[in-house]
Specification:
There is one protein chain. The protein is mainly β. The chain contains 1 helix and 4 strands; from the N terminus they run βαβββ. About 10% of the residues lie in helices and about 30% in strands. The chain has a 4-stranded mixed beta sheet with strand order 1-4-3-2, covered by helices on one side. A hairpin with a 5-residue loop joins strand 3 and strand 4. The radius of gyration is 16 Å and the shape is globular.
């Protein structure tokens, strides 16, 4: 008998040890579209990252975090960061 590894819908997602990072053409428009969608769970708001990407995160129904991003600037490491 084969077991299903995914949690049943309605039992609540358990955070998975995987994050997915997907590029979109217009991250602001996609964020706004998902924000209006019923059931979409945005876990991190739209934000500018030091590496030059504008990002936000969504939790899927199975507990996976999906990052959506668009590169909009040059990397600006935090002051004191060690660059290898």
């Amino acid at each position: 008998m084969r077991r299903n590894c995914r949690p049943e819908r309605g039992t609540g997602p358990a955070k998975q040890p995987v994050e997915i990072y997907l590029e979109v053409a217009d991250v602001v428009a996609y964020h706004d579209q998902l924000k209006k969608k019923k059931g979409a769970k945005i876990t991190d708001a739209l934000a500018m990252q030091w590496w030059g990407d504008q990002t936000f995160k969504v939790m899927d129904p199975y507990g996976y975090e999906v990052w959506f991003y668009q590169t909009v600037g040059e990397p600006k490491p935090p002051e004191g960061a060690k660059i290898v």
